[in-house]
């Protein structure tokens, strides 16, 4: 009898270990031996309750066919942030794009590996900026943010009053080995908004190949940079008990243009009250904040009541905004769409060159969206385009401006490629390594529509002429894509005085004549908005 029971026990243990494949799990993620079982379990020795990364793996990234239980490591899990600490699983395990396969040599520097399921363990280190000679901005507000150059993601921001000519600012936002823009401005006119220089004093520092605990020195100067400051929306959630341990996603959609300004994702709701941050918003815009909780746990959006989804609106008329939301049953079908993320590797031949990418839906030849790097930031970088619908097929067209002409030229003058994909359910990922299989992607350049003297292929707003003027002046601009566009005049208190246009325009050059017969002398701001892009300049009416 004892032998029989022992045999049963042995068989159960054997079958359990085979089903869960515990001896193999550590080997199924990059640098798995660094923290061993602690990567997935609360107990460093393994077994028992899983941490956030382990729970994510268990819910969505385990093989369900033989050999069952092995981790499906790849881009889809590497790009996620299991523990909500602002760092993706791939970055924490030193395999940013999820390219490692079991049996290969582990990537990265194992000394930098941190636990992807524990938000108290991440690779973020502080950067200190030592400010000096800031007397011109005493009693003004300093706004600062840090942006990862390789993927344009914001890593942190802060604002504080300038009470001394010399002071330090410390932000815990740097991953060693990566490069960053550190953008900041002093609100010289004290209106609480970013205004392009010289109205506000604005600067950009670069931190390349961060070493960790970096220190930068900055002394006030007049070498200003238009940093195209963005605003945020903070959503404070409460009474979210029905969705504990569920995924939540949210995004901001411009009400006027329908374009997405930014999105955020939390893999697991772990508490009744929490906050989420959306970046990428522009001033003086109205947005729909759309979000859903993944009630059925399939990792994707399903219309209510299968998932719970909501829509609320907000405005950035006062800059960054904060919204309080308490769980309710006023659901909305928000028709959620997904993103395509393209990870580029081995792009060293094009470092510091212009790079553009666009996504086109094949059946309708409709452009879904595009991104642009004024200069390729390094051999590896990422870009993301939203608006992907499951079941549809897309082309991803992109080029590097090899001859530095500032526009697309067919290969081999420029290097250009096309890759295609059929959108799966949920977010999609592609990895591209530089090669010489070039394709003429027939990039749609901007061409002159009025025979004027300038032709450029970028979104641009020119200084009005004449300036100063009385009472008429001409404003010229260039659109690099078909977009809903508005051009309006504001006084220096931010009040809209004249709307010159508010309509859908095709790409091209435009010239608008403005008569200020009914306006008093003074300084005015003219602001051009096209899609998610905004440009502003000042002009002087002098009677």
Strand order of the largest sheet: 3-2-5-6
Mean pLDDT: 88
- What's the oligomerization state? single chain
Beta strand count: 28
User: What percent strand?
Assistant: 35-45%
Structural class designation: mainly beta
Low-confidence stretches: 1-23, 446-456
Helical content band: under 10%
Q: What kind of sheet is the major sheet?
A: 4 strands, antiparallel
Terminal-residue CA separation? 108 Å
Overall number of structural domains: 5
Rg result: 26 Å
Short description:
The protein is built from 6 helices and 28 strands. The protein has helices spanning 2-20, 22-25, 32-35, 52-60, 75-78, 89-92, and strands at residues 125-132, 141-148, 154-161, 167-174, 180-186, 201-207, 214-219, 231-238, 248-254, 260-266, 274-281, 286-293, 308-315, 321-326, 338-345, 355-361, 366-373, 381-388, 393-400, 415-422, 428-433, 460-461, 472-479, 483-491, 496-505, 508-515, 522-530, 533-541.
Describe the structure.
- This protein folds into 5 domains: 2-112, no CATH class; 125-219, Sandwich (Immunoglobulin-like), CATH 2.60.40; 231-326, Immunoglobulins (Immunoglobulin-like, Sandwich); 338-433, Immunoglobulin-like, CATH 2.60.40; 460-541, Immunoglobulin-like, CATH 2.60.40.1930.
- The chain has 6 helices and 28 strands.
- The strands form 8 sheets. Strands 3-2-5-6 form a 4-stranded antiparallel sheet, with no helix packed on it. It has a 4-stranded antiparallel sheet with strand order 10-9-12-13, with no helix packed on it. Strands 17-16-19-20 form a 4-stranded antiparallel sheet, with no helix packed on it.
- Mean pLDDT is 88; it is low at 1-23 and 446-456.
- The chain starts with a helix and ends with a strand.
- By secondary structure, the protein is mainly beta.
- A hairpin with a 5-residue loop joins strand 2 and strand 3 (154-161).
- The chain is globular.
- The chain is 8% helix and 39% strand.
């Amino acid at each position: 009898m004892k032998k029989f029971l022992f045999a049963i026990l042995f068989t159960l243990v054997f079958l359990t270990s085979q089903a869960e494949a515990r001896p193999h799990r550590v080997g199924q993620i990059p640098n798995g031996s660094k923290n061993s079982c602690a990567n997935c379990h609360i107990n460093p020795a393994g077994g028992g309750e899983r941490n956030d990364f382990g729970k994510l793996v268990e819910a969505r990234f385990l093989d369900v066919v033989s050999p069952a239980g092995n981790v499906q490591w790849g881009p889809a899990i590497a790009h996620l942030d299991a523990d909500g600490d602002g760092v993706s699983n791939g970055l924490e395990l030193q395999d940013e794009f999820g390219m490692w396969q079991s049996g290969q040599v582990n990537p990265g520097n194992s000394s930098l590996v941190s636990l992807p399921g524990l938000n108290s363990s991440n690779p973020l280190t502080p950067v200190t900026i030592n400010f000096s000679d800031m007397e011109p901005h005493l009693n003004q507000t300093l706004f600062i943010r840090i942006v990862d150059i390789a993927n344009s993601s914001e890593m942190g921001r802060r604002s504080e009053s300038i009470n001394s000519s010399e002071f330090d600012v410390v932000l815990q936002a740097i991953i060693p080995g990566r490069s960053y823009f550190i953008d900041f401005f002093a609100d010289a006119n004290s209106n609480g908004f970013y205004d392009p220089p010289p109205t506000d004093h604005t600067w950009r520092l670069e931190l390349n190949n961060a070493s960790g605990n970096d220190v930068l020195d900055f002394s006030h100067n007049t070498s200003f940079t238009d940093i195209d400051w963005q605003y945020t929306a903070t959503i404070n959630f409460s009474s979210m008990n029905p969705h504990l341990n569920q995924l939540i996603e949210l995004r901001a959609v411009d009400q006027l243009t329908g374009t997405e300004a930014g999105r955020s994702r939390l893999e697991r709701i772990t508490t009744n009250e929490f906050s989420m941050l959306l970046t990428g918003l522009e001033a003086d815009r109205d947005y729909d904040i759309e979000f859903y909780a993944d009630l059925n746990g399939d990792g994707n959006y399903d219309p209510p009541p299968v998932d719970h989804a909501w829509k609320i609106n907000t405005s950035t008329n006062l800059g960054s905004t904060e919204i309080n939301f308490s769980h309710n049953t006023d659901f909305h079908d928000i028709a959620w769409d997904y993103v395509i993320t393209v990870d580029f590797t081995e792009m060293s031949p094009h470092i510091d060159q212009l790079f553009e990418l666009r996504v086109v839906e094949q059946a309708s030849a409709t452009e879904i969206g595009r991104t642009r790097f004024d200069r390729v930031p390094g051999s590896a970088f990422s870009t993301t385009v939203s608006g992907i619908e499951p079941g549809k097929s897309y082309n991803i067209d992109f080029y590097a401006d090899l001859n530095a002409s500032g526009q697309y030229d067919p290969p081999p003058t420029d290097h250009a490629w096309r890759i295609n994909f059929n959108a799966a359910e949920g977010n999609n990922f592609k990895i591209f390594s530089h090669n010489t299989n070039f394709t003429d992607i027939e990039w749609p350049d901007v061409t002159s529509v009025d025979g004027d003297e300038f032709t450029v292929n970028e979104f641009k707003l020119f200084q009005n002429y004449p300036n100063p003027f009385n009472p008429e002046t001409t404003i010229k601009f260039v659109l690099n894509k078909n977009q809903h566009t508005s051009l309006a005049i504001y006084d220096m208190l931010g009040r809209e005085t004249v709307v010159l246009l508010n309509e859908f325009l095709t790409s091209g050059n435009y010239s608008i004549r403005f008569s200020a017969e009914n306006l008093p002398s003074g300084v005015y701001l003219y602001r051009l908005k096209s899609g998610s892009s905004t440009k502003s300049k000042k002009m002087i009416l002098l009677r």
